[in-house]
Amino acid sequence: MSFTFTLERTVGAARAARFATPHGVVESPAFMAVGTLATVKALDPDDLRAMDAQMILANAYHLHLRPGDELVRDLGGLHAFMQWDGPILTDSGGFQVFSLATLRTVDEDGVEFRSHLDGSRRRFTPEGVMRIERNLGADVIMQFDHVIPGQSEPAVARDASERSLRWLARCRAEFERLIADEPLPGRHPQALFPIVQGGIHTGLRREAAAAIRDQGDWKGVGIGGLSVGEAKPDMYRILEDLHEVLPADRPRYLMGVGFPEDLVEGVRRGVDLFDCVAPTRMGRNGAVFTRDGRLNIKRAEFRASTQPLDPECTCAACTRFTRAYVRHLFLADEILGLRLLSLHNVHFLVTLMRDARSAILDGSFERWSTDWLLRYHSRTAPTV
After folding, report:
1. What pLDDT is stored for residue 99 in this prediction?
2. 314 and 224 in one domain?
3. Taking CA 291 as the corner, what is the angle to CA 288 and CA 295, rounded to the nearest 5 degrees?
4. Where are the beta strands (DSSP E) in the chain?
5. Would 281 be classed as within a structural domain?
6. Contact between 224 and 187 (Cβ < 8 Å)
7. N or C: which end of the chain has fewer CB within 10 A?
8. Residue 229 within a domain
């Protein structure tokens, strides 16, 4: 199956669509669970299938370091390696390299950094990252980009955005060379997505979007450099502005954004795909996503609570266990507690986007999203 994107209905900027990939169709808007190291932490692929997760993300930086992208290639690619038969997207590692602020040096050719595992010197270039992502074999692969803090000044943001555009041209050239000169027998097609950078500066974002269009046709586009320290109103403003300039007939992927309210606000502004480590990372620390706001399961108020984590949730944790039991697991340092909250939080976001899609399709999205956000933000923090 080739890559196609079909808009089904819009309500304002919100879009319901179908994104076809070689490993299946993604009905959007959709949340992609993050499987950084070829696993969504604490969850089995069967857990993801049971909650109707459609597409997951893995990370080129981490898998290059361990176990090695060439090994993954030799074992049949990510789908075979991790036993996931649905669509996969790989992040290029740009954000991970950005997070190594004291361990990396950026120049025009690429980035030199020290491995967070053993301190060994490594170098990422646009060409090298394309070879890594080609080896991993995801359906969608992301360009290598230069990520900067969210509140960066215009000159810094321009430098990083323009470098990302130059790196994009190199990524595309190497991607096309690999397809022509080094085909992988029996492997499926891949789609390369560019990434719009530019910080919180509207003019730079518009320039980047126009420059990406000028470089040719793309199967989709990433929106990067948000949720990296900027204020949320700035993120929402940038998404509103980009809605007017990004191609309407291609999927839009907002990178690294995964708090419930941000997903709803993003859909309101025309975003189709999301990913974030937040649901599993926060779950491992006791945070629970609910329709009435976020809870900390370790609080004393839940010691004897017979309620499920979220009374309206249909996940395997909520249909079987009480808040009191999950709290007990956390206080006793039992691994099951981490697993149950990770499962619930991912299920919550997957379901949230499915509900948003249904509201778009039946025309009720504006009312649904307003009501959902009012309820989510209305919870008063407990005093205990």
Report:
1. 82
2. no
3. 30
4. 4-11, 14-21, 24-28, 30-34, 56-59, 88-91, 104-106, 111-114, 121-124, 140-142, 191-193, 195-196, 221-223, 252-254, 273-276, 287-290, 293-296
5. no
6. no
7. C
8. yes
Three-class SS of residue 62?
helix
Q: Provide the pLDDT for residue 382.
A: 46
Reported as a single tens digit per residue, the pLDDT across 147-172 is 999 999 999 999 999 999 999 999 99
Please say which residue of 276, 301, 321 terminates a domain.
276
Same domain, yes or no: 166 and 208: yes
CA–CA separation, 331 and 325 (whole Å): 10
> Which residues carry out catalysis?
91, 275
Tokens, residue 250: 């291609």
At 33, the amino acid letter reads A
What is the domain extent for residue 148? 4-276
- Report how far apart, in Å, the C-alpha atoms of 108 and of each of 54, 105, 124, 159, 331 are: 37, 10, 11, 10, 49
Euclidean distance between CA atoms 14 and 77, whole angstroms? 34
DSSP letter for 130, please: H
**CATH number of the CATH domain containing 85:** 3.20.20.105
Question: What is the secondary structure of 316-381 as a DSSP string?
Answer: TTTTT--HHHHHHHHHTT-HHHHHHHHHHHHHHHHHHHHHHHHHHHTT-HHHHHHHHHHHHH-PPP
Considering its fold, how many domains does the chain have in total?
A: 2
Q: What six digits make up the tokens of 117?
A: 């595992």
Mark whether 247 and 304 lie in a shared domain: no
pLDDT, residue 1, reads 60
Whether residue 248 is found in the same domain as residue 292: no
Reduced to 3 states (helix: H, G, I; strand: E, B; else coil), residue 28 is strand
SS3 of 246, please? coil
Place of tokens 């080739």: 2
Per the CB < 8 A criterion, the answer to whether 374 and 32 are in contact is no
Query: pTM for the whole thing?
Result: 0.96
Which residues of the chain fall short of a pLDDT of 50? Answer: 382-384
68 and 96 both lie in a single domain:
yes
Q: Please give the Cα distance from 27 to 54 (Å, whole number).
A: 8
116 shares a domain with 216: yes
- 186 backbone φψ class: left, alpha, beta (φ>0; ψ -120 to 50): left
